[in-house]
């Protein structure tokens, strides 16, 4: 009986000792744990969250997970669309039920994170200065002198508030949502964007696609969307762009002349076209077929630049969707150029 009591007492002593040692060890471990870093509310993501004019951007950053990128210590220059920018594409009032996929939104905001802290005001005057994006491609910054002001644009969009300082970089506030550059040339863009399937097929049929793959020159492509090709593509007998079969049956030489009339050399985002109209006495672009297209801008409005071919009776607008989501079809960067979706066919 006494032996059993001694054994029980010994076990109780050992158990108590173990618990005490475990507790002490636990205390030691807690003391060894590093204190969590204080939250730096001056980082890009937090500045966006704290600004009521950037509320939609803050929601999209959270939805897509890009908020993690712009709240860590890595330095970025973030192209920050304000709330009015999202309203232009129908993603403002009804967010997040505007019809845009999470992947679409994520692609644009990941692209908007440019590598490094770049003060746009420190860049020299010049057009299409490339800056590397976190998505592996580039954005294009232009700076112009107009009267006594310096205008800064990126991918054709006006920078409304430049160089907002953050502890991990800069915010560049824009009035539009930038399209991401995802392809190394305009040919790859046309082949991969299903809105331009008919135009891409016509470019292949005409033999122009290889030229658009070139890395030696830059191009601006005025590309009618599929719905436009189906509506206006019956140009004349033997030149019909309304279906794949009719395009494959078209005369390649006539097809090439028509498509060349939709392409000019140089990278002309809409801002550069507008600057050309303000600074040049000639409001025309010379296209690849040697003929000219008249360019006009009404000076206000969204994507208000128009194009008129020599055979057109009325101007051709930048294409605009009339059902949500209202995708912007202007200013698509693509490595060796830029693509603008248009709502008509330019006739030589």
UniProtKB/TrEMBL annotation:
Gene3D superfamilies: FAS1 domain
Chain ranges of the FAS1 domain: 41-178, 183-346
One Gene Ontology cellular component annotation held by this UniProt entry: extracellular space
Source superkingdom: Bacteria
Classification via Pfam families: Fasciclin
InterPro entries per the UniProt record, alphabetical: Adhesion/Biosynth-related, FAS1_dom_sf, FAS1_domain
Signal peptide: 1-27
Keywords: Signal
Record-given protein name: Fasciclin domain-containing protein
Organism: Chitinophaga barathri
Lineage: Bacteria, Pseudomonadati, Bacteroidota, Chitinophagia, Chitinophagales
